[in-house]
Amino acid sequence: MHTHEIAATWTYDDGRMPWRRALGAYIAEARSECLRYFRAPGFLLPVTLFPTMFYLLFGIVMNHGADPNAARYLLASYAVFGVMSPGLFGFGVSLAAERENGLLTLKRALPMPPGAYLLGKMLMAMLAAGMVIVLLLAMGMGLAHVHVTLIQAGSLLVTGMLGVLPFCAIGMFAGTLVKGQGAPGVLNLIYLPMSFLSGLWIPLSMLPSALQRVAPLWPSAHLHLLALRSLGLGQPALWQNVLILAGFALVFFMLAARRLRRLG
Predict the structure, then answer these.
(1) 55 vs 104, which has greater pLDDT?
(2) Residues 208-221: pLDDT tens digits?
(3) Residue 259: which domain range?
(4) Where does 147-217 have alpha helices with state H?
(5) What is the mean pLDDT of the chain?
(6) 40-49, 130-139, 147-156, 196-205: segment of lowest average pLDDT
(7) Is the distance from CB of 220 to CB of 125 less than 8 angstroms?
(8) C-alpha–C-alpha distance, residues 240 and 148, integer Å
(9) Do 252 and 173 form a contact (C-beta atoms < 8 A)?
(10) 7 part of a folded domain
(11) In 3D, which of 118, 161, 128 has the Cα closest to residue 29?
(12) Which of 24, 100, 166, 256 could be 180's S-S partner, Cβ–Cβ 3.0 to 4.6 Å?
């Protein structure tokens, strides 16, 4: 028996999937998740329309002729606001519904790596976040005449697409706690207050000092600092904010995984 045949036999005998089939399963699941959500107007339209409409109204129309840095600041703010949505709702609502209707149990029984389901949803959320960032950049540069260099635009895009991951983790954990019908309401109770308390709608300097002191408790506040930095506004401690966001993602993914193992 040849070496590759021995390796293949050993792989099947100990219950592991050959790497080529595993890679195919990851790709198929990621493609399926992306197509499923991007063909669903009930998910795609709110994710893209809410931040773009808010930026158009508050960042462009109501700030017409104001300080150019105001439009730049609001571009970063509504970019973070838009990025939070596909993470929280793309994971939270869908996971809660799939647990309730038995789809998650079916997926667990399929011959695919356990991580394929998670990776597919993460890729979907990252692509949706990237779409929101591109739309906001187009509006900011085309309508608000915000001067953004190619490096700044790319930095904001990367920041948004990676910055969605902590909110995926929070949404995933929330999806393990509630049923499908209650998930949107619970996630809105997280999404909207967190946006306000992070200075996305009103600068933190205009909020009461007590609210300013608790702002670092929210991942959106740290992502906001990184988004501002990517557009040339402020110089926060880059790695400190990155590590805090990574910590949020790790902790909530672990909590969600623990609940799924225990309760399904």
Answers:
(1) 55
(2) 888 889 999 999 99
(3) 22-263
(4) 150-163, 165-177, 183-197, 209-214
(5) 82
(6) 40-49
(7) no
(8) 25
(9) yes
(10) no
(11) 118
(12) 100
Question: Would you say residue 143 lies in a domain?
Answer: yes
Taking a C-beta distance cutoff of 8 angstroms, is the pair 142, 55 a contact?
no
Q: How many residues does the chain have?
A: 264
Q: Please tell me the number of Cα atoms within 13 Å of 186 on its side-chain side.
A: 19
- Determine, yes or no, domain membership for 5: no
Quick check: is 74 in a domain? Answer: yes
Are the C-beta atoms of 177 and 259 separated by less than 8 Å? yes
Tokens matching residue 172: 């995933």
Amino acid code (one letter) for 231: L
pLDDT of residue 9: 35
Q: Residue 234 has what pLDDT?
A: 73
> CA 201, CA 195: separation in Å to the nearest integer?
7
Is the pLDDT score of 1 beyond 60?
no
User: How many angstroms separate the CA atoms of 60 and 227, rounded?
Assistant: 18
Query: Which tokens hold the place of 67?
Result: 């300080």
Between the alpha carbon of residue 186 and those of residues 57, 91, 181, 182, 203, the distances in Å are 27, 13, 10, 6, 25
- The amino acid sitting at 264 is G
pLDDT in tens, 81-116: 999 999 998 888 888 887 777 766 666 666 666 667
Mean pLDDT lowest among 32-36, 50-54, 229-233: 32-36
Instruction: Please compute Rg for the chain using Cα positions.
Output: 20
Cα separation, 130 vs 177, whole angstroms: 28
